[in-house]
C-alpha cells in the first residue's frame, strides 16, 4: 500500500509540475477623459484681437497606464461657437470673430456658455463605453477702458424730514429716482 501523499510529507505520489509564469494586467480603456483645472468663468478683454487666445482647456485620459491622445471640439449646439475656434490637438480656444461682432452679440445674449468635448482617439477602446466627456465654460466680456460711472441726469431733487433716523428713504421729486450708469458694462449683462 502506498503512503497517503496528503498526510505524509516524505512521499509525494502526485504528479506535480512547477512553472513560473508572468501575468501582465492591462488597464481596459473604459474611463472617459477628465478635464483638468477648468474654471467656470473665463474673462475676455474687449481689446482681444481676432485670433487672440481666450483659454486653453486640457483633459487627460481617465485610464491609467498608456495615456491616449485626446482631441477637442465644441459641442455643435453650444451657445456662441460661431465666435470661437478650438484647436483640436492643443485645446486652445481663440476668438474667431472681430471684437466688434463679439461685443455686439454679447450685449444681446450676455455671457456665452461653451460646451467643450474631449475625445479619446485610439482604436483599442472598449466598444459601448464612453470615450469622450464634456465640460462647460462661461465666457464673459470685460471692458478695459475703465470709464468712471456717471449719473444719468445732471440734477436730482429729493427731501428728507429733519431729525430723521439713519437709513430713512429719500423722497425724490419727479418721475424717477437717481440712476447711475457704467459705460464699461454691457447693457443687458446677466449675473451668474
Automatic annotation (TrEMBL):
Record-level GO cellular component terms: adherens junction; catenin complex
A molecular-function term among this protein's GO annotations: calcium ion binding
Keywords, in A-Z order: Calcium, Membrane, Repeat, Signal, Transmembrane, Transmembrane helix
InterPro entries: Cadherin, Cadherin-like_dom, Cadherin-like_sf
Cadherin domain ranges (all copies): 36-151
Localization per Swiss-Prot or TrEMBL: Membrane
Protein name, entry field: Cadherin-86C
Organism of this sequence: Araneus ventricosus
Higher taxonomy: Eukaryota, Metazoa, Ecdysozoa, Arthropoda, Chelicerata
Gene that specifies this protein: Cad86C_1
